Structure formats: C-alpha cells, structure tokens
Amino acid sequence: MAGLSNYIERFIKEMLQEAEDGMIEIGRNDLADQFHCAPSQINYVLSTRFTPYKGYYIESRRGGSGYIKIMKLSWEKDEGLKNLICDTIGESLTKDKAAHIVRTLLDEEIITENEGKLMLHALEDMALTRVTKDRNEVRADILRNMLLVYLR
C-alpha cells in the first residue's frame, strides 16, 4: 500500500502546484474511485502526509457529497509563527503556558485584543470541562489549529 500512498500523495501535490491560489477542493470518494481504493486510504494519506507540520491545512466534510479542501500554507510569511506552531506548542499545553503564548502574540501584535480574548476563553479549563483525559493535548491541538488561520 505504500506505493499507492505515494501515487496519491504525488497526485495531490501536482494538483496543488497547478492551482493558482495553492488550494484545491476534491471529492474524497472521487479520488478513491480514481485510484481504485477505499476512502480510508485517502484519509490515511491526508492524515500522514498533509499535516500542518508539513505545511498543509485540510478541511474535510464527510458524507455522500463530502469534500476535502487542501491548502498549502505559506510558511515563508512568518517563520516565527511556524516555529511556534511546530516547536513551542508541542503535543501538550498547560493553561498557563497557553496564556503565556497568547499574551506574547498580543505583545508582538500578531493577534488583536479580541482574538486574544477568544483564544484565552477557548483554552480555559472551563471550556474543556468535558475533556477529562488528555486535556492538555486537546488544548495544544486547539491553539495550533487557531494559529494556522494566520498562515493561510
């Protein structure tokens, strides 16, 4: 299956290169049909080879008319933000460390006051009360995904 995954990856990357805005929207089932594979194979390729750490942002909608939107992030816009997303946040993030990162983003005028407030509230323990296990990992994922918006 590694060979098929390589073909799917190469196909998607070629489509992204041809796209004027660095973004493509494709049907998961259409892509699976084209490569004669299950949609789960497409999901595997996307989740392992098109991650934010590798410079991609993915939106997905499941169902019969589901689609996948893949966007190449422009890391060169802000190397500092790339380092923050990939290195500083890490796999786990405490509430205090999250607040420190948000305050730094405010101080550096990367985010606005209102954006900072939204981020802080979304990262609070109160917002994550239903998450009993792996709360700090979920918090890291939330902040990382919020910051990806700035690289679109």
Helix percent reads 40-55%
Percentage of residues in DSSP E strands: 5-15%
Sketch the major β-sheet: 3 strands, antiparallel
Number of distinct helices: 7
Unreliable stretches (pLDDT < 50, length at least 5) are: none
Q: Distance between the terminal alpha carbons, to the nearest Å? A: 31 Å
The overall number of domains is 2
Please tally the β strands and state the result: 3
In spatial order, strands of the major sheet run 1-3-2
Average pLDDT rating: 85
Evaluate the radius of gyration: 17 Å
Oligomer: single chain
So what's the overall shape? globular
Category from helices, strands and their pairing: mainly alpha
Spell the H/E element sequence. Answer: HEHHEEHHHH
Structural overview:
The structure is a single chain. The chain is mainly alpha-helical and 152 residues long. It folds into 2 domains: 2-72, 2-Layer Sandwich (Phenylalanyl-tRNA Synthetase, Chain B, domain 1), CATH 3.30.56.130; 75-151, no CATH class. The chain has 7 helices and 3 strands. It has helices at 2-18, 28-34, 39-49, 79-88, 95-107, 113-123, 135-148; strands spanning 23-26, 56-61, 67-72. Strands 1-3-2 form a 3-stranded antiparallel sheet. Helix 2 (28-34) crosses helix 3 (39-49) and helix 5 packs antiparallel against helix 6 (113-123). The longest helix is centred in the N-terminal third of the chain and has 17 residues, at 2-18.
Task: Kindly list the characteristics that best describe this protein.
2 domains, mainly alpha, three-stranded antiparallel beta sheet, Phenylalanyl-tRNA Synthetase, Chain B, domain 1
